[in-house]
Amino acid sequence: MSATGWFREAGASVRLWFAPDRVQEEGSTPDYRFSLANERTFLAWIRTSLALIGGGFAVDQFLTDHLTRWARVGLALALLAGGVFCTLRAVNHWVRCERAMRSGRNLPASRFPALLALLVAVIAVAMVAVVLFGWAG
Amino acid sequence: MSGAARASASASGEAPGPARRAAVETDRDPGLQPERTRLAWRRTTLSWSVAAVLAVRQSLRGAGGTAPVAAISLTAFAFLAFLLLAHFRIQRLAAAQPPLLSKRAAVAVAASTVALAAGGAALMFS
What was the ipTM of the complex prediction? Predict the structure, then answer.
């Protein structure tokens, strides 16, 4: 996808979040239990992003013996940015699922879980290497 | 019930076991969906608390000044906003047929999380 296309799509998503509950007018109202399940999934993603943010704080506070300040800050900022991205995506996915349920379409497929898993795996391997081999600054 | 009586009961087509209860139509959900959702909000509150404690600990490490105070204020404000959102949502979940989570509330929850991350990032440079 081109960069401009991506930005246009992102802008459309943000407008969708702030549309004053237009979601509720289209399609038919699904069983409220499905909406509650969607809400729980949203909250689970929020918890995931809170864990990433807390992990960012923990890297900066507890790896002082292993990393230079800038390596620590870089890693922590990567985790914080991951948490922010995960949060924004949580809202986006929740809105899209709600709309899909109302109009009877398939739920949106997503590459995000795989991307997040890769990010977490890379950071975890880096941490293990740092702690095992003592790459201190 | 003796063995012979049970045998005759099952022979006559009645299910054995404790007294059966007729299915009752209720307006409460048998899958306890609202309760599970309530507990999900509680778990999220707990995660938020842990992250907030780490953020405050972060601000206590650096030198003094106005930046840590501002960052702590931002974190506290975001935490309070989240607690209020969770509280009102949990209250609304108590209805027999809970209403849909409003889009405004979902965006506000996300905004409080983003504020926490922004405050934390600011603290790392103070």
Answer: 0.80
